[in-house]
Amino acid sequence: MTTITRFAPSPTGRLHVGNIRTALHNWMLARKAGGRFMLRIDDTDAERSREEYVEAIRADLAWLGLEPDGEERQSLRLAKYEAAFEALKAAGRVYPAYETAQELELKRKIQLGRGLPPIYDRGALKLTQDERAAKEAEGVAPHWRFKLDHDEPITWDDGVRGAQKFDAAQLSDPVIRRADGSWLYMLPSAVDDLDMGVTDVLRGEDHVSNTAVQIQMFTALIAAQYAAAKMPRFAHEALLVGREGKLSKRLGSLGCDAFREKGIEPQALVALLARLGTSQPVEPIAERSALVDSFDLSTFGRAPAKFDDAELERINAALVHQMDFTSVEHRLPEGMDEAGWHAIRPNLSHVHEAADWWRLVTGPIEQPEFAEDDRAYLAEAARRLAWGDDPWHALTNALKEATGRKGKPLFLPLRQALTGMDHGPDMAELLPLIGEVEARARLVRAAA
Ligand code: GLU
Question: Which GO terms describe its molecular function (predicted)?
Answer without folding.
Answer: ATP binding; glutamate-tRNA ligase activity; tRNA binding
